[in-house]
Amino acid sequence: MTRQTAGPHPISYAIWLEHVSGHNPGLSEALLERTRGGRLLDKTATNQLYREHIADAGELRSDTAAEAIRRVMNAIAESAREAGAKTSRHGAWLGRLREQTNDDTIEGRVLRELLEQTADMQQAVSGLNQRLASSQQEFDIL
């Protein structure tokens, strides 16, 4: 790196680090081709290597990561919506049972307790859905 005319600056460090780490074979191949026969890298060639092999790759990795996060968030949101729908159906079913049961019996008291717990679950799922929607909006802004 120090024998190149581009000089030591962050872009030079980035391309040489990528090269010696072995994580970017396309860059290594292009770098070896450009320095074959003792040729030196100037600032223009260094910047071009960076744009072609590091900057674009980083953007691609960021786009891929963002899409993966978006898919996970959508799957979580869908699961939370399904959970909300199921707890609503369960609550309605318990409500119908309770209407047919006397509150003075053990069954009536158990059903009343189950309905209260189901209502708590519905509130928790509703809060989760709201937080997920907010997080998705925030992620879309980023």
Main features:
142 residues; mainly alpha; 0% strand; 82% helix
> What proportion strand?
under 5%
Instruction: State the low-pLDDT regions, or none.
Output: none
Q: Strand tally, please? A: 0
> Into how many domains do the coordinates divide?
1
Give the SSE map:
Blueprint: H1 10-21, H2 25-35, H3 43-99, H4 106-141
Helix pairs in contact: 1-2, 1-3, 2-3, 3-4
Task: Give structural notes.
- The longest helix is centred in the middle third of the chain and has 57 residues, at 43-99.
- The protein has four helices and no strands.
- The chain is 82% helix and 0% strand.
- The protein has helices spanning 10-21, 25-35, 43-99, 106-141.
- It starts with 9 loop residues before the first helix and ends with a helix.
- The protein has one domain (10-141).
- The model has no long low-confidence stretch (mean pLDDT 84).
- Helix 1 (10-21) crosses helix 2, helix 2 runs antiparallel to helix 3 (43-99) and helix 3 (43-99) runs antiparallel to helix 4.
- By secondary structure, it is an all-alpha fold.
